[in-house]
Inverse folding.
């Protein structure tokens, strides 16, 4: 016998189907709006936020409107993608990263110049500067 709580959950999901699966642009927009509301009380909504975030992620991985972005992201070095994101969040330019050497060197790293990659010294310094795990850059 199916527990009553499961039946109630099934009925609730029928009212908000995009909580578990987004099928249209409208569902996506509703999901984003719901996420904005739920995030205000994260601890009370954690389980729902987890479900909704999976639904949103699946849509963004498959939707045509994200295809070019996803393709560019797939081709990008993960460590550099993290670094570029951190730079954008902190409004930093190539001159603001002495941990990586000269402005020229930083530019070459960010543009993926031949043979230029983040090394262990760079990763440790960036990890310390931004207070993130070194694993994010690997």
């Amino acid at each position: 016998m199916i527990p009553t709580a499961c039946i109630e959950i099934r009925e609730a999901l029928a009212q908000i189907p995009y909580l578990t699966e987004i099928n249209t642009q409208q569902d996506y927009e509703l999901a984003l709006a719901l996420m904005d509301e739920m995030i205000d009380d994260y601890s009370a909504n954690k389980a729902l936020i987890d479900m909704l975030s999976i639904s949103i992620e699946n849509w963004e991985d498959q939707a045509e409107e994200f295809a070019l972005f996803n393709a560019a992201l797939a081709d990008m070095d993960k460590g550099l993608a993290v670094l570029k994101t951190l730079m954008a969040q902190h409004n930093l330019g190539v001159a603001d990263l002495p941990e990586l050497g000269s402005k020229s060197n930083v530019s070459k790293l960010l543009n993926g110049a031949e043979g230029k990659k983040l090394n262990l010294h760079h990763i440790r310094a960036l990890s310390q500067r931004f207070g993130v795990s070194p694993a994010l850059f690997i």
In short: The two ends are 48 Å apart (CA to CA). The chain has two domains: 4-70, 76-137. The mean pLDDT is 92. DSSP finds seven helices and no strands in the chain.
